[in-house]
Specification:
The protein is α/β, with parallel strands linked by helices and about 600 residues long. About 45% of the residues lie in helices and about 10% in strands. It is built from 25 helices and twelve strands. The strands form four sheets. Strands 2-3-4-1-5 form a five-stranded parallel β-sheet, with helices on one face. Strands 10-11-12 form a three-stranded mixed β-sheet. Helix 6 links the parallel strand 3 and strand 4. It is flat.
Length: about 600
């Protein structure tokens, strides 16, 4: 009992050939090792339990192997391989980023990179769950990851690649691990069962593979649990009992009740399932997957997508012939909506029963048959669909003798004689004529063109008349000519306004106005120089009031000023740049060339 090792550790792959379901990655890594084309940083990403950390360890062991095999595998006999298998290798460092995600942890890792390996070619650093690192830790890792020493190789593993900074992704060679298929999982479980001398049905192993959902570690853990439960005799029935999986036979019985529209039998069957301890959402999810499998069996081309235990394929094919595709699609829609709204329902059982009732009468709702038993289908329109247009009869207008009037869009007013003035009583309002609709349509009259020539009248637009009226009522005053800016007058007005601020007890603003320096730019602009931001804000607060006085003084409303900071005449002293370690060493090596010779012979690296 003390020597028991779980299957996930006992049967962990030790070579690339024993890795399950990742042929595209193991082949690439072996070819890179044989051709000596190793990258300095790798990123292994994919779902949990698919072999990311396992491949990282195998890669670390293989590149340090002293007797590399022709097929790119490690020998497992040299001192480097033996120390790795015993967990005593000094060239391989593993870091769990989930618990060591701070900047200090990454800085400690960077400090270790400076030291060359004591034995072997490479020092390998495996960082698991690298997406858990903080943003500052990622930034501390960037420089070392971009330009590491020639003997350092980084292998990063993560399940969430989207959380890693793009700058990290661009510095790594990315390998995407895929989920392990059920067939590969079953084959691996059969090898383990054979090595452990256990009795297991293939259907039981298929159920385990489906339950693991592509995770080999979960599959091996489930296998250990069921072996302990069944005392080494794995059957289909005791496997589904242990994993709390509803038997497929219940789904076939539910489908028979639906086809016969046996509501009572369907409700009793669900009650039996409920008394066995299965929740409603599990029934909805399982029945939806069952309906999906039947829909897949409708077409022989998609039959390969059917992934069920051994012995049920033919049963699925037989039942698929009894059900129409429209019924299956509608049933999937009902089950999907019921599963989505399951969490919000207060009475869970009633919610599931309502979904089953809809399914029971679904066939009757879909097949709207005529008296002859022919299914009524909607007509299919192949041509383009046009909108219906409602014809509107034209309005008939009763012709009445009217005086000819001008139909132009512009209004004209005849000029009055000088001796006559126009009053309000003389101007008649223009009233729009009402159009009456005749009861009986009359023939359209041809438009008549008036041939009468009017006497030439001097016309005036409505806008001209308004301008003339406004000009009579209001006197237009001429704008005075603006005066150019003068520095003396400007400064006196500026200081006078500072005195007004003192009378208003605004001492700080008054001192700011007196300390400011004025400079004229052109006839309409001048600049004000201040020393601090506070002074600038104080002048901005008084801008409107002081500009009102200045504009009135120079008779120009277009005057404006800008506030700038005064520049000191003193030039800053030259600051000597701070030198890093490499620059200081180069300066020392120029004075004493023996230092460079010492560095090259001892193979020393200079820290940045």
């Amino acid at each position: 009992m003390d020597n028991f090792v779980v299957s996930a550790r006992k049967y962990r792959p030790q070579t690339f050939d024993t890795v399950v379901g990742q042929k595209h990655i193991t082949t690439t890594l072996k070819n890179a090792i044989k051709n000596h084309q190793l990258a300095h940083a790798f990123l292994f990403c994919g779902p949990r339990g698919v072999g990311k950390t396992t491949c990282a360890r195998i890669l670390a062991k293989t590149i340090n192997c002293e007797n590399l095999q022709p097929n790119g595998e490690a020998c497992d006999k040299c001192p480097s391989c033996v120390s790795f298998n015993d967990g005593a290798s000094l060239n391989i460092h593993e870091l769990d980023a989930a618990s060591n995600n701070s900047v200090d942890d990454i800085r400690a890792l960077v400090e270790q990179v400076r030291f060359a390996p004591q034995a072997g070619k490479y020092k390998v650093y495996i960082v698991d769950e690298v997406h858990m690192l903080s943003a500052s830790a990622f930034n501390a890792f960037l420089k070392t990851l971009e330009e590491p020493p020639g003997y350092a190789i980084f292998i990063l593993a993560t399940t969430e690649k989207h959380k890693i900074l793009p700058t990290i992704l661009s510095r790594c060679q990315i390998f995407d691990f895929k989920r392990i298929t059920n067939n590969d999982t079953v084959e691996h479980l059969e090898e383990i069962v054979e090595n452990e001398h256990l009795n297991a049905e293939k259907a039981a192993l298929q159920v385990i593979a489906q339950k693991s959902e592509g995770c080999m570690r979960d599959a091996l853990s489930i296998l250990d649990k069921i072996v302990s439960f069944t005392d080494g005799k794995l059957t289909y029935q005791n496997t589904i009992d242990n994993l709390n999986i509803l038997d497929e036979d219940y789904y076939f019985k539910m489908l028979e009740c639906l086809l016969q529209q046996d509501l009572a039998g369907l409700m009793l069957l669900y009650d039996e399932i409920n008394r066995k301890g299965f929740e409603g959402d599990m029934v909805l999810n399982g029945f939806a997957e069952f309906i999906r499998n039947l829909l897949v069996c409708q077409d022989s081309k998609a039959a390969s997508l059917l992934d069920v235990v051994e012995g049920l394929q033919q049963k699925y094919l037989d039942f698929a012939k009894k059900v129409s595709a429209s019924l299956l699609v509608s049933a999937l829609n009902i089950l999907n909506e019921a599963e989505i709204n399951y969490k919000q329902a207060r009475n869970k059982r009633l919610h599931v029963e309502m979904a089953l009732i809809k399914l029971n009468f679904l066939q009757q709702a879909i097949e709207l048959a005529s008296e002859n038993g022919v299914v009524i289908k909607k007509k299919r329109i192949d041509g383009p669909v046009a909108f219906r247009e409602k014809k509107i009869e034209p309005l008939q207008i009763i012709a009445q003798p009217q005086a000819p009037k001008d139909t132009s869009a512009r209004l004209y007013i005849a000029k009055e004689t000088p001796g006559k003035t126009t009053t309000k009583e003389d101007v008649k309002p223009i009233v729009e004529e009402k159009k009456t609709v005749a009861q009986n349509p009359l023939p359209k009259a041809k438009p008549q063109i008036s041939t009468r020539v009017q006497s030439p009248v001097s016309k005036q637009t409505l806008l001209d008349a308004i301008k003339a009226k406004v000009g009579k009522e209001y006197d237009v005053t001429e704008v005075e000519n603006p005066e150019p800016l003068e520095l003396c007058r400007l400064q006196s007005t500026w200081l006078a306004y500072s005195d007004e601020l003192l009378q208003q007890n605004k001492h700080a603003a008054a001192m700011t106005f007196r300390a400011a320096e004025l400079m004229i730019v052109d006839d309409e602009n001048f600049k004000i120089f201040v020393h601090t931001t506070v002074q600038k804000k104080q002048i901005e607060l008084e801008r409107l009031f002081v500009m009102e006085k200045i504009c009135a003084l120079f008779k120009n409303r277009m005057l404006n000023f800008q506030i700038e900071f005064s520049q000191s005449d003193e030039e800053p002293e030259d600051v000597k740049p701070v030198l890093n370690s490499r620059q200081r060493f180069e300066i020392m090596a120029e004075k004493n060339p023996a230092l460079k010779l010492l560095k090259d012979k001892l193979k020393l690296n200079i820290d940045y």
